[in-house]
Specification:
With 754 residues, this protein is α+β, with helices and mostly antiparallel strands. Helix content is 60%, strand content 13%. It is found in: Cytoplasm, Cytoskeleton.
Length: 754
């Protein structure tokens, strides 16, 4: 029966495991039949059920032999089934052990995979973060390119409009060509002169190019000249010191000679008085002698008459002889006094000659000292000129440091401990040292102004830079520092005090005076003024007559002032008031008007704290009719709001919002300076209105100067150190060589004017 089941060609379903798992197939669970008597025997579920349910049929109930044989056959098949089950159980145990080992290996592999997946997940997160940053920078770049594209489209539209206007004008000129035939000869002559001038300008341009090529070569010579100037300066200073020592020694000798001369004159006066008294005594003695002689004669005559008076006559004779001896002694003393007087006259004459010689020597020494000081001043001017030339060639931002004096109520005992100034010749007037926590921090700038420096001395250092605005350069001067460090005093000064005027009024006075003096050379200038402030990241027009435009609700002005930069690096602010000015008095009136409109507030650090960034802009346009040259210059004078810490200022409410906006804009300015110092491809000028407004000054072709103002009290050491570090970083930035904006009046312009 088993053989029939095994040899049958039917394919049955595999026998399932007793615990209800998957069915077994010949492929999935092969049965080991090694040692089996019946060869390979496979059982299915139906076979086992049939075997268990099989009932043995007997032909005869009493045929025990047949029943035994059938029973043996049935038992044999049961044994085969049981053996098959045992072998299958062994195979399953072996397979289970194998699966357990595989499970352990798979678990280890899964753990390794999870660790690697975590690492890959972290790497992917970092890559995603970098991609996000790249995406943000790409978005910024895309926005920038889109704005540039829009600007290019606008310029293209304007160019098309200009082209259409030119075509219309050309058609009009074509119609008027018949009328202009009479003026053709003069126009040709003017064109010929223009061509000649163009050739001259080409030659001048080529010479300028040669000069620029030589300028870099002259830079090394300038460095050597500066070194030689420094050496000569040290020698001159040493000579001045020696001459001063000689001068002081000669002054001491002169004082001693004057003292000895005074003594001699006193002795001479005493001798003269003594001689006079001796002469008087001598005259008296002579008179007495004459009197006695007369008396003697009378006595002799009387003695002749009277012999009784002989004794009296003898006494008179002895008295007369003694007086004669006294007279002789007085004469001897008079002779000796005359000799002493002659000797004193000779000594006085010699002292007078020596005094004159020393006086001439002192005059010579004074002239030599004056010449040495003049050479020192000229050498310092040459050093400054060469230093400025080098800075202009390098394109660095110049930095001046100014330390304000101590105010009443501040601790002046810590100034010497906190701030000091190097005394070496190399760093004299350029170095400053700051002590914090017993650590010395040294900084070097283009100029360092001590607390006793006047406003006039500060302006003298920047006067040539202001002059550059009249020459056609863009000039920017801005003051940086913590609140209460003297920025507004430096830029605006003290109202009502002529000696303490700030840089802005002094710059305007110089520009108007220079404009007046240049009229004799054919120059005519037109000046335009605008003033604005950046308050809570909002631009406010300080010259606007509309009071509604000056009001702000939560720092937002109702009037929008958009900032735009053209292709030439010029900055334009939309809807900003620009006024023509003719005199410095007009500008002073406008400054007072802007000062009244500017946002100020009281904090714990400053009674009158500026709560906004103040920007004064003077646009200069000049024309020289004799040379047909035009210049366009811009002077930007900026008073930045002071940085402050909330813990020290105690700002709350509106002051708190103002402080946060000020610190944010100054932080953006620091990010821009840091990017410029590292020469990054992307500089975040658009992060704040302040940096976007200063973009041509910080990243263009402008002459830029920064004042870093320092408070000397010890409580401001931390803020002063931050300001000095920022200034040092600004001084290291290279923004490009300044470019002068000049051009020649076009022939068409002259024809239209003529």
């Amino acid at each position: 029966m088993v053989g029939t089941m095994a040899s049958n060609g039917r394919i049955r379903s595999a026998f399932p495991v007793a615990n209800g798992s998957k069915d077994l197939t010949p492929d999935s669970a092969p049965v080991s039949t090694a040692g089996s008597e019946c060869g390979q025997v496979e059982f299915t579920r139906e076979d086992v059920e049939a075997l268990l349910n099989e009932r043995i049929k007997y032909k005869s109930k009493f045929n025990y032999k047949e029943r035994c044989e059938n029973m043996m056959e049935y038992i044999k098949r049961l044994r085969l089934c049981i053996r098959w089950f045992q072998e299958l159980e062994l195979d399953y145990a072996f397979e289970q052990e194998k699966l357990k080992n595989a499970l352990v290996l798979n678990e280890k592999h899964c753990a390794d995979m999870e660790a690697s997946l975590k690492n890959k997940e972290e790497e992917l997160n970092m890559i995603i973060e970098e991609l996000r940053k790249n995406f943000e920078s790409a978005q910024i770049q895309l926005a920038k390119e889109q704005t540039e594209k829009l600007a290019a489209n606008d310029s293209l539209v304007k160019e098309k409009e200009a082209r259409h206007a030119v075509e219309k004008a050309q058609s009009g000129l074509t119609e008027e060509l018949g009328k202009a035939q009479g003026e053709l000869q003069t126009a040709n002559q003017r064109i010929q002169s223009v061509n000649d001038m163009y050739k001259l300008l080409q030659e001048y341009n080529s010479s300028l190019q040669l000069y620029n090529s030589k300028l870099q070569g002259d830079l090394d010579e300038a460095h050597e000249t500066i070194k030689r100037g420094e050496k000569e300066r040290t020698e001159i200073v040493e000579n001045i010191g020696n001459l001063k020592g000689q001068f002081s020694a000669l002054q001491d000798q002169l004082a001693a000679s004057k003292a000895s001369q005074d003594d001699i004159m006193k002795q001479k006066a005493e001798l003269v008085n003594e001689i006079a008294s001796l002469k008087v005594e001598l005259q008296q003695a002579k008179d007495e002698r004459d009197h006695h002689l007369t008396e003697l004669k009378t006595l002799q005559t009387e003695a002749n008459k009277y012999n009784d008076f002989k004794d009296t006559i003898t006494e008179l004779e002895t008295t007369c002889s003694s007086q004669s001896n006294q007279i002789q002694e007085l004469q001897d003393r008079l002779v000796s006094c005359d000799r002493r007087l002659q000797m004193s006259d000779l000594t006085t004459f010699e002292k007078m000659n020596e005094f004159e010689d020393q006086k001439q020597t002192i005059i010579d020494l004074k002239s030599r000292v004056e010449e040495a000081e003049l050479k020192l001043v000229e050498g310092e001017k040459l050093r400054k000129k060469l230093h400025n030339t080098i800075l202009e060639l390098k394109g660095n931002i110049r930095v001046f440091c100014r330390v304000r004096p101590l105010l009443p109520g501040e601790n002046n005992g810590d100034e010497g401990k906190t701030i000091s100034y190097p005394a070496s010749l190399e760093l004299l007037g350029r170095g400053i040292d700051l002590m914090q926590n017993a650590q010395k921090h040294s900084f070097t700038f283009d100029k360092v102004f001590l607390p006793n420096t006047t406003q006039e001395d500060v302006f003298i250092e920047i006067s040539q830079l202001v002059q550059s605005a009249l020459d056609g350069y863009k000039v920017c001067i801005f003051a940086y520092g913590q609140t209460g460090s003297g920025k507004t005093y430096t830029m605006m000064g003290k109202p009502g005090n002529a000696e303490e005027k700030g840089l802005i009024p002094r710059c305007l006075e110089q520009i108007f005076e220079t404009r007046q003096s240049l009229r004799s050379q054919g120059w005519k200038y037109e000046l335009q003024v605008s003033m604005l402030e950046i308050y809570n990241e909002t631009i406010r027009d300080l010259l606007s007559t509309n009071k509604e435009a000056l009001r702000t609700d939560n720092g937002v002005s109702p009037q929008k002032h958009a900032i735009k930069h053209d292709a030439h690096g010029n900055t334009h602010v939309a809807e900003l008031t620009i006024l023509d000015v003719k005199s410095s008095r007009e500008v002073s009136f406008l400054l007072d008007h802007a000062a009244r409109n500017r946002s100020v507030g009281k904090t714990q650090m400053n009674e009158q704290s500026s709560r906004s960034h103040f920007v004064f802009t003077l646009r200069i346009s000049g024309v020289n009719e004799s040379t047909e040259q035009q210049v366009q210059g811009v002077l930007n004078l900026i008073d930045l709001a002071g940085s402050e810490r909330l813990s020290k200022s105690g700002s709350t409410g509106d002051r708190l919002k103002e402080t946060q906006a000020i610190n944010k804009s100054l932080s953006s300015l620091g990010d821009v300076i840091f990017a410029l110092a590292k020469k990054d491809d992307h500089v975040p000028f658009r992060n704040s209105k302040l940096t976007y407004l200063l973009q041509p000054c910080l990243g263009g072709d402008s002459k830029t100067l920064m004042f870093v103002n320092i408070a000397p009290e010890s409580s401001s050491t931390g803020e002063s150190l931050c300001s000095l570090r920022f200034a040092a970083r600004v001084n290291a930035c290279e923004i490009g060589t300044p470019r002068r904006q000049t051009n020649i009046i076009k022939p068409l312009d002259r024809l239209s004017l003529g």
